[in-house]
């Protein structure tokens, strides 16, 4: 034994253990996020429990959300009813019961001694509502245009009328967003134009009456839209559902509050899978509701992608030029060394410092000056002088600059010098060699750098919290109003969405699955991008290995 | 192609080539420019913090009468100054350049005593020989003729033009104190028979006429000193300070019907006599001036459950103190002295900001403007207005990095508390607790990450077979790409409750894992040789993976039983009650694990590279001389690669210090200073993320947050630069080998 220890073999095993821990941790983490994120969309079974709580009998309908083992003793100490329980540990269930406005808590713990009976009734409906979260209950009747129809087993009328009201609401939303939004936007432009003329002391009474006339036209236009908007909304609110909830009472829910309905206990695996895919689609394509704790993440995806693309446009030329300088032009002197140290440090400076710098330098200094020079009419409310997507992109461009530089330089160093010398020997200038030979050959490396930069930027949150991200942006940075791209606007971001929903929302318990789903989305994108970058780099290495031989 | 064309084009080609050269060189310099820009911009924002104050003379007026001044004051925009003298005369002085003259006011009564409130209230009270009290102030009316601001001063009667009756009988008021809040007025009057009485007027608005009706109550102050030199009433109407020579009597006057003597304190500096005293803004502190130039700050400190007025710190000027005047909202004050000097101090930062000699004679009265950007001072020869540049008096080296005795605290402490609802709040901007938090978080993260990362790097680089390494290295490196917001979210919402619920299991895991590794290794040697040879040695890393998983599951399964057995079923309660250690759910252990997780790939990757590139002939030589694998590793490989490992740890440390999202989400963000693993912390980076969006641009708070960012920048700059230098040296060494 002693000899075995002296041989050092156990210590080697210990180092192997460290690797195992790392691997288990990485893979386990990814699996954890994937499982929790994806299971959120799976329609789980809804149970109906008959409970007896301190002698009183109640019925509870809900999904089993969590299970845990608690020591009986602790339960006893907390004053819970423990009659009929024995053993050291008790299993208790966390039920999600929904129906938020009718019960005190939409999550509740129950212990096994409280359960009298438990069943999985076929026709329980899960209603996904626009406000107040899910509703569980039995559909009793559908009220269509004032006429009460008894619920049928195939639920076809229910589905049809929900689809009808949702279509109407979609139409109303799009009217409000594009047409009415455009009217408002034009009104604001007129106001700014007038204010600008006023500031320049060029405003005449003719102009004022002209502006007023334009305003009047827009106002008339608005009234027309408003009328059809209200008509659409009235139409959408025409029908309703009568549902019996777990208290046994009948509740009327207007259809314009219902987003979707499903009957999980009637679904087979295939139907559930279909529903699952549909839910995922809805998650990535729809807008958040209820202070971001429900609904989709489309604006966050859009904001992230838009900002990252903007950043890529800024960082790529800078990074590539810097890398070319370092590898092709720089002499081996102290200035080059200085630049290299700068690159290393840019990569190592904490991201929050970039945020602070971005806020002070870009937002307040540059943005403030732009406002003074070009947008005096809208002061004191800032245009570019407040956090926005362009400043986020610029800040992250500096942050990811080293990533592009390092990756591009690596690509350049893999190109054999014989290729360059050949080109020069044939009479090409250095610039021509670079432009025609070296850069095309290094383009996969540049691509790798860009992908890595994008992956880094997509996951970075801390600096964005200071320079442009918000929890809920009313408008996207890209829309149908001239000039279409609005670089000064604030935007939503997946990473910040995770922070905000997970830590700032009023109902963390209800929002948690959504955070896992968002995390899964973000991790998938980032790990995917990284794997792609690694693949491209490996291919490149192989290619130049053969060139060198 | 003709010769001619090619010649011409080669000229333009040369030009393009040159253009490209300069363009690219410029592009290369951009990186350096970016870094320098960040450095200098941060510095540019931070530097004004450490600039002292300065006074610029703006206007001067000859003294118009010989009457002594009761109170000086300045209007908020620094356009008009005013002076109440002891005879009931109010004069206005135009401080702007528009040449307007203003009419003053004279209270046509025989004044026997006068009093003033704290500067932010700005009232004066005159007692007349008839036993009446007139309350006056200077009012400023703003109008906008032709879109330009015009401020006109008038006399104001805050309580109406009718005087308040003191009901003194035949005796005259000798000494007066006055203070009011929204519905209560308190007047303390001492008559020539050394009788002190407190009058409390409670106002009630008449609903019909809208007028305020006053009802008064009167009580006497028992046992006052024979000779009262100065009286101060606190603006909250709770305490009365009565100075007689060098002794200060403090009365509790909360009850309108009874005044009680709380304490008598001797307040003079050693061997000197007290000349003046004044309340600081917020009225927690009282400043005492002496004739030897010493000014001392006193406030109530709770000691042994008893409030006691204590001397906190001293400031000094060169000559006898004439008057002390405090700022409206901040904790600054100005001192006029007998040598004609005027000095400005700040209590929190314990600093003398500026001291200037205004006159050959003496300086008497002095007053700050409401925004503390102007000073109105009276010297022997003139009344002068000075512009003051004093943006950040509360910040000094000692306020940032040393213990400070804040108002109301029992002792000097390091405190970070930047904002509060109150205007008169004393900002506590000590960077020590949050720097400590940063170091603590980084320490626990490194404690977790360094052993795993370096051991892992050693195994991966030195023992692992090629194909497995090809898979393992990128997998670990993918961790680096994981957004920290996700790690933070998992740490805060998944890991923290998990650890809280399974604390015994986690501790068991830490002990069981190494034991199980050794056990597996030992069992491995006992396996029959035939099986051993079938599985290549290099795969043992993978053999341990199921061991890790199984031990992990076992530890968690066992945790509730352990908890029941060792900690009476609730480890958390046990730690808090039995061991007396505070337990936060989001504690250092959670941060250590989560941030360690984020740092592992950084350290792993660099250390692995360093070990892997140790030249093979070195190890082969060692093995050929009969050393075992382990001996070769410890005596040759690690020694050679140690600079690389060192630089890896430095890089990791740099990352841990600056990491924001994980600490923001996985700690409670309370700036406690405690090494306990069961408590949270607040770090520099998280502090910036939390407070920066709400801080006012250009304020001291904003600049101190920039200073925090600057400190982070310098920290990481040092770590990264050292690491890079070491790596460069190592690379050169390897290439020479």
Automatic annotation (TrEMBL), chain A:
Membrane topology: Multi-pass membrane protein
Membrane-spanning intervals of the chain: 12-35, 297-326, 338-364, 384-406, 434-455, 514-534
Gene3D superfamilies assigned to the protein according to its UniProt record, in alphabetical order: MetI-like
Keyword Membrane: yes
Any GO CC annotation of this UniProt entry: plasma membrane
Cellular location(s): Cell inner membrane; Cell membrane
Pfam families cross-referenced by the UniProt entry: BPD_transp_1 (PF00528)
Entry's Gene Ontology BP terms: phosphate ion transmembrane transport
Residues covered by the ABC transmembrane type-1 domain: 301-533
Keywords: Cell membrane, Membrane, Transmembrane, Transmembrane helix, Transport
A GO molecular function held by the record: phosphate transmembrane transporter activity
UniProt key word Cell membrane: yes
Family membership: Belongs to the binding-protein-dependent transport system permease family. CysTW subfamily.
Entry protein name: Phosphate transport system permease protein PstA
Gene name of the record: pstA
UniProtKB/TrEMBL annotation, chain B:
Any one Gene Ontology cellular component term annotated for this protein: plasma membrane
Residues covered by the ABC transmembrane type-1 domain: 435-723
Keyword annotations from UniProtKB, A to Z: Membrane, Transmembrane, Transmembrane helix, Transport
Tree of life domain: Bacteria
InterPro entries according to UniProt: MetI-like, MetI-like_sf, WD40/YVTN_repeat-like_dom_sf, WD40_repeat_dom_sf
Membrane-topology descriptor: Multi-pass membrane protein
GO terms for biological process, alphabetical: transmembrane transport
UniProt main location, coarse: membrane
Compartments where located: Cell membrane
Transmembrane annotation, as ranges: 21-47, 441-464, 476-499, 505-525, 537-556, 589-612, 633-653, 702-723
Family classification: Belongs to the binding-protein-dependent transport system permease family.
Protein name in the entry: ABC transporter permease subunit
């Amino acid at each position: 034994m002693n000899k075995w220890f002296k041989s050092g073999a156990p210590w080697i095993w210990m180092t192997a253990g460290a690797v195992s821990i790392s691997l288990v941790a990485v893979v386990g983490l990814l699996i954890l996020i994937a499982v929790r994120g994806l299971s959120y969309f799976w329609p789980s079974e809804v149970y109906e429990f008959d409970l007896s709580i301190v002698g009183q009998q109640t019925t509870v309908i809900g999904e089993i959300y969590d299970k845990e083992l608690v020591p009986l003793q602790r339960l006893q100490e907390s004053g819970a009813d423990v009659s009929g329980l024995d053993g050291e540990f008790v299993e208790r269930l966390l039920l999600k019961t929904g129906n938020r406005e009718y019960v005190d808590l939409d999550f509740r713990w129950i212990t096994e001694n409280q359960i009298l009976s438990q069943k999985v009734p076929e026709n329980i409906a899960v209603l996904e509502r626009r406000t107040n979260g899910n509703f569980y209950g039995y559909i009793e009747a559908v009220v269509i245009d004032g006429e009460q129809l008894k619920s049928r087993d195939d639920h076809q009328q229910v589905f049809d009328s929900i689809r009808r009201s949702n279509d109407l609401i979609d139409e109303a939303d799009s009217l409000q967003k594009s047409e009415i939004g455009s009217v408002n936007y034009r009104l604001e432009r007129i106001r700014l134009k007038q204010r600008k003329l006023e500031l320049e002391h060029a405003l005449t009474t003719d102009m004022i009456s002209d502006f007023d006339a334009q305003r009047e036209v827009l106002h008339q236009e608005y009234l027309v839209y408003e009328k059809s908007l209200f008509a659409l909304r009235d139409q959408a609110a025409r029908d309703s559902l009568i549902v019996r909830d777990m208290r046994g009472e009948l509740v009327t829910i207007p259809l314009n509050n219902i987003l979707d309905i499903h009957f999980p206990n009637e679904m087979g695996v295939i139907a559930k899978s279909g529903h699952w895919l549909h839910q995922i689609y809805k998650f990535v394509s729809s807008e958040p509701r209820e202070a971001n704790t429900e609904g989709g993440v489309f604006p966050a995806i859009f904001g992230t992608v838009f900002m990252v693309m903007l950043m890529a446009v800024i960082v790529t030329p800078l990074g590539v030029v810097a890398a070319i300088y370092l590898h092709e032009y720089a002499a081996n002197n102290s200035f080059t060394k200085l630049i290299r140290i700068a690159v290393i440090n840019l990569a190592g400076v904490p991201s929050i410092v970039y945020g602070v710098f971005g806020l002070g330098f870009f937002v307040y200094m540059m943005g403030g000056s732009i406002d003074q020079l070009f947008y005096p009419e809208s002061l004191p409310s800032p245009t570019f002088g407040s956090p926005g997507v362009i400043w986020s992109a610029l800040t992250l461009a500096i942050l990811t600059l080293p990533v592009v530089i390092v990756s591009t330089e690596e690509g350049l160093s893999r190109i054999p010098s014989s290729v360059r010398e050949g080109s020069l020997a044939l009479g090409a200038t250095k610039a021509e060699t670079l432009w025609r030979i070296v850069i095309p050959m290094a383009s996969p490396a540049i691509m790798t750098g860009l992908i890595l930069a994008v992956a880094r930027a997509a996951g970075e949150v801390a600096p964005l919290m200071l320079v442009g991200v918000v929890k809920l942006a009313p408008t996207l940075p890209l829309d149908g109003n001239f000039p279409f791209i609005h670089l000064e606007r604030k935007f939503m971001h997946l990473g910040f969405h995770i922070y905000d929903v997970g830590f700032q929302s009023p109902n963390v318990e209800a929002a948690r699955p959504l955070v896992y789903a968002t995390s899964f989305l973000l991790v998938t994108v980032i790990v995917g991008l990284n794997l792609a970058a690694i693949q491209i780099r490996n291919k490149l290495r192989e290619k130049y290995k053969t060139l060198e031989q | 192609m003709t010769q001619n064309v090619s010649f011409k084009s080669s000229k333009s080609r040369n030009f393009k080539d040159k253009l490209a050269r300069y363009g690219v060189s410029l592009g290369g310099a951009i990186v350096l420019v970016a870094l320098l820009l960040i450095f200098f911009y941060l510095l540019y924002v931070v530097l004004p913090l450490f600039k002292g104050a300065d006074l610029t003379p703006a206007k001067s007026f000859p003294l118009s009468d010989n009457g002594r001044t009761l109170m000086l004051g300045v209007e908020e925009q620094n356009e008009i100054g005013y002076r109440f003298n002891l005879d009931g005369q109010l004069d206005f002085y135009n401080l702007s350049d528009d040449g307007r003259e203003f009419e003053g006011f004279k209270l046509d009564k025989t004044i026997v005593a006068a009093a003033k409130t704290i500067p932010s209230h700005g009232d004066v009270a005159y007692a007349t020989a008839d036993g009446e009290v007139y309350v006056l102030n200077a009012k400023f009316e703003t109008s906008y003729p032709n879109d330009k601001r015009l401020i006109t001063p008038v006399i104001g009667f805050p309580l109406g033009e009718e005087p308040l009756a003191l009901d003194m009988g035949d005796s005259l008021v000798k000494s007066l104190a006055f203070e009011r809040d929204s519905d209560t007025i308190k007047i303390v009057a001492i008559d020539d028979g050394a009788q002190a009485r407190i009058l409390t007027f409670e106002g009630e608005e008449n609903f019909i006429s809208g007028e305020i009706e006053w009802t008064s109550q009167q009580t006497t102050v028992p046992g006052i000193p024979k000779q009262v030199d100065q009286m101060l009433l606190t603006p909250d109407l709770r305490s009365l300070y009565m100075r007689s020579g060098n002794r200060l009597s403090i009365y509790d006057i909360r009850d309108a019907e009874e005044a009680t003597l709380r304490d008598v304190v001797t307040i003079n500096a050693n061997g000197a006599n007290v000349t003046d005293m004044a309340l600081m803004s917020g009225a927690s502190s009282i400043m005492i001036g002496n004739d030897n130039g010493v000014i001392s700050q006193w406030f109530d400190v709770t000691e042994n459950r008893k409030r006691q007025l204590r001397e906190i710190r001293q400031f000094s000027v060169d000559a006898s103190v004439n008057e002390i005047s405090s700022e409206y909202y901040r904790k600054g004050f100005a001192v006029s002295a007998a040598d004609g000097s005027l000095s400005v101090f700040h209590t929190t930062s314990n600093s003398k900001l500026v001291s200037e000699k205004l006159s050959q004679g003496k300086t008497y009265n002095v007053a700050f403007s409401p925004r503390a950007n102007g000073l109105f001072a009276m010297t022997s020869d003139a009344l002068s207005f000075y512009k003051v540049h004093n943006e950040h008096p509360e910040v000094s080296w000692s306020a940032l990095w040393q213990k400070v005795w804040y108002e109301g605290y029992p002792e000097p402490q390091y405190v970070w508390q930047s904002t509060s609802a109150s205007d008169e709040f004393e900002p506590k901007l000590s960077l020590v607790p949050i720097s400590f938090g940063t170091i603590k978080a980084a320490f626990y993260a490194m404690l977790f990450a360094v052993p795993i990362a370096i051991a892992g790097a050693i195994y991966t680089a030195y023992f692992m077979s090629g194909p497995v390494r090809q898979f393992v290295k990128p997998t670990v490196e993918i961790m680096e790409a994981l957004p920290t917001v996700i790690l933070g979210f998992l740490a805060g919402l998944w890991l923290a409750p998990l650890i809280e619920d399974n604390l015994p299991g986690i501790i068991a895991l830490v002990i069981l894992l190494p034991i199980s590794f050794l056990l597996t290794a030992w069992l491995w040697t006992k396996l029959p040789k035939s099986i051993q040879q079938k599985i290549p040695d290099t795969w043992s890393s993978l053999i341990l993976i199921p061991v890790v998983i199984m031990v992990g599951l076992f530890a968690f399964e066992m945790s509730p039983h352990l908890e029941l057995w060792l900690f009476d079923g609730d480890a958390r309660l046990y730690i808090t009650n039995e061991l007396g250690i505070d337990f936060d759910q989001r504690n250092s252990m959670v941060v250590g694990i989560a941030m360690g997780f984020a740092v592992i790939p950084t350290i792993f990757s660099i250390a692995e590279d360093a070990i892997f590139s140790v030249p093979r002939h070195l190890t082969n030589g060692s093995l050929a001389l009969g050393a075992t694998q382990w001996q070769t590793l410890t005596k040759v490989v690690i020694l050679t690669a140690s600079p690389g490992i060192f630089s890896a740890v430095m890089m990791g440390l740099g990352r841990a210090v600056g990491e924001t999202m994980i600490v923001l989400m996985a700690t409670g963000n309370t700036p406690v200073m405690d090494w306990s693993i069961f408590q949270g912390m607040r770090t520099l980076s998280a502090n910036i993320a939390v407070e920066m969006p709400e801080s006012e641009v250009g304020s001291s708070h904003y600049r101190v947050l920039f200073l925090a960012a600057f400190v982070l920048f310098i920290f990481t700059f040092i770590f990264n630069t050292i690491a890079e230098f070491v790596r460069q040296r190592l690379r050169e060494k390897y290439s020479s080998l």
